[in-house]
Records
---
Amino acid sequence: MSGDSHCQEALEARPHQEAGQRRKTPRQQRGQETLDVLVSATATLLDEVGYEQLTTKAIAARAGTSIGSFYQFFANKDAIVNELAQRYRGQVRTYLAGSVTDPRRYGISSAWVSQVILGLVQIYRNMPGFRGVWSGRHRAGPLGEQAQALRREVFDALDQTLGEAFPNVSVEARQRCLGIALETAYQLLSNVDDKKLVVEELQRLLGPYLASYFSASNGGETTTPISRSGR
Amino acid sequence: MSGDSHCQEALEARPHQEAGQRRKTPRQQRGQETLDVLVSATATLLDEVGYEQLTTKAIAARAGTSIGSFYQFFANKDAIVNELAQRYRGQVRTYLAGSVTDPRRYGISSAWVSQVILGLVQIYRNMPGFRGVWSGRHRAGPLGEQAQALRREVFDALDQTLGEAFPNVSVEARQRCLGIALETAYQLLSNVDDKKLVVEELQRLLGPYLASYFSASNGGETTTPISRSGR
DNA sequence: GTAGAATGTGAGCCTCGGCTCAGGTTCGCG
DNA sequence: CGCGAACCTGAGCCGAGGCTCACATTCTAC
């Protein structure tokens, strides 16, 4: 706590550390390498033991370096988790920006569902540690915030896409439907191992559901209005 | 541990302690009362701070007693959590045995969905701490096991009910469908505050989905077979 | 009333995890 | 070469949480 003691000289940019911030930016290749290996170690450990069992000592050991080096680059444990999560968010953002296409191009909405889901499954599979953040099992702490930010981004992107495609569906209905659909997708992706099964069942489950809100030809409200949303 | 030191005389039943077991059974009313208040305190604290932040000291303090008393009745932290979870399981089991009715009585499956869900929402609302176990956010530790057991029980009960109502639907399809439906319901119940909304949207989402597996009149396989399930 | 069981209490032990620090090694560059 | 910056290291401080234990109090049964 408040122990900046000896490194008071201008770090370079950020003046005062907030929780979960980086500490130094590496200037040499050595530094960048240890930083990277630390982040990678964190990712694999996240998969192996989960966030609550994640310790800084274990990270350093797995990375083949020392705790001292860890704290050279990260102000605290949260910082490295944030760093990791940032990378995930970058991946997801890129994917969303590039690969989410107009749902009207697909005759049946279940095809659009699988198209969107499959991209996320890719990221899911290829990035160690991602499932830990993505699953949204953590509400508090850095993982909680990052997961929320991640979901917010996905939500906003899809919301916009749907809004453009179906301007006649009310914002309220659109977001309600999307929120429910995303929660469902998150849960199944996180908790069912067989991803092929998940994609197929998600189509069967969400296809008709989405279709009941967004009919292919137009965009009219389909059912009774409903009370407040808790999303 | 092996620290039974002074209470070697026959406790009464269980010979050697396993992890998460009770320690002594209270013989006087005093004892039973402090035990109960400890369990209640645990339940409310579970809601307030969650399992990871739950400490034995906090439990004792909230219960208005001392850590010493805590360890008089519970061998360790897990024991009291198990105790709590057992009570939840009892509630759920009672509900399942008494209130889950034949889906064929309902014309549209969405009505059956809401019927089943509403009962669970009741329990959800009336038992402090229940959401923590039910949410299934914990995979490891006592909560993880209890959550799994709880879900297993719900699954089995509904599986049997559906099996009796629709004998023509293959076991594989039935269980696949039920597994997906339950995961969906769990997620939405855990993560959306507005329970009324949840129930309505679950009807709209799961009604058609279940109907696609279990048609009201008969019970034939409806779609393509699918690979292995990860449920 | 009194023995002995049941129960209550909290200081404190022990372990473990986050994080520091003082001292070393390596690197970039004149 | 030499000097300062960047980087590395790990013993150890600190606080927190699980749990124990020796002793105090209350209850039950005779």
Note: Residues 38 and 63 of chain B are 5 Å apart (CA to CA).
---
Amino acid sequence: MEKKVSESVINRLPRYYRYLDELIKEGVDRISSKTLSEKMGLTASQVRQDFNCFGGFGQQGYGYKVESLKESIGKILGIDRQRSAILIGAGNIGRAFALNITFEKRGFHLTGIFDNDPEKIGQTVGDIVVSDFEEVEKFIEENKPEMAIVAIPKAGVNQVVFRLKNAGIKAFLNFTHAEVEDAEDIVVENIHLGDSLMRLSYKMGEKI
Amino acid sequence: MEKKVSESVINRLPRYYRYLDELIKEGVDRISSKTLSEKMGLTASQVRQDFNCFGGFGQQGYGYKVESLKESIGKILGIDRQRSAILIGAGNIGRAFALNITFEKRGFHLTGIFDNDPEKIGQTVGDIVVSDFEEVEKFIEENKPEMAIVAIPKAGVNQVVFRLKNAGIKAFLNFTHAEVEDAEDIVVENIHLGDSLMRLSYKMGEKI
DNA sequence: TAGATTGTTAATCGATTAACAATC
DNA sequence: TAGATTGTTAATCGATTAACAATC
């Protein structure tokens, strides 16, 4: 884990993780870079280069042990341990996400849900009661969640991120249609559903 | 629109579109590549190169007209005209998406929702009644939707895509945690929520 | 006209691919 | 040992950045 790992590699890591998970379920316990690359539409070289960013998980002449490779990648991704999150916004997207990750779970644990709509406060999503957003700072201080999923109307996003950041949250999953203003000491991952739709629309025009 | 446009450029197009939309709302009607690039965290060169993939929308010594630039990009993205879509899967994610794009609308129009769960068939999402998935072929033939949003458990995705493809749908927005098997004559855009979460987790480990 | 900023060509940088020696 | 496949170095390709002539 010496030199900086490129964005492209990072983007592929979750996909490797998913494929390896599949392989385990299929009972495969060993795989070569060639076979894996064919399954995933990459080149064998690329697969080996990617893994070697983190220092060689394979065995010459043999290939990679699926189980331990998956475990290693999980560790790199930081999902070997439970991470706690809060959800801001109990609207459609927020609720769907909460119910979905609780189901799917992958080392993530939702500890609180917040909204500023009196209609929604007190409602239950999964097994969590929606709290007033005004209480979020107190909650963060007491429970120290590591990340926040922001699923609110786009107008409020930067104000909300600002408050959460000041309260101690450093990682944000942003579902709003707006960009989070860059700040040095936080990390943001965006899920722009509209962008995906536009990209699909573009591809339709190109290829069909 | 001569030579092939790279993936990187395509990925940036929706972002340009959103920023230009913001600018219009702020009443800005003219912008230089330099100013736009600073707002978006790119370089001025990159912005000009990107736009020139499609053949120069600017004016030397002046810059770009925001309104017409947005319109041009909208056209490139294929969102200048209404596109019709159906939703497969009326679970949490599917419903959230349906309600969300109806709200946000950007040239997309949802015409049908399908599920195979008897509990969900007959329910209403927005102003659309959920139909039995068994009727999807008939619906497609009659209504000719252009794309399908697939928000079902991952196990079924390839079978569902196969049926929809045979019925005439060529574009898919895939919300499942599985990959759609490559087929020559369709286009797929993936939204893997779990991947985004993993990437965020990775970034947390790196930067914080 | 002078200043500004594009469109476009050339230079640089980084990521992907190819090749091969190391070694299981 | 022989065969297979990695780890790693070198070659290629493509994307980003820099530079500048064209021109509004």
Note: The mean pLDDT of chain B is 93.
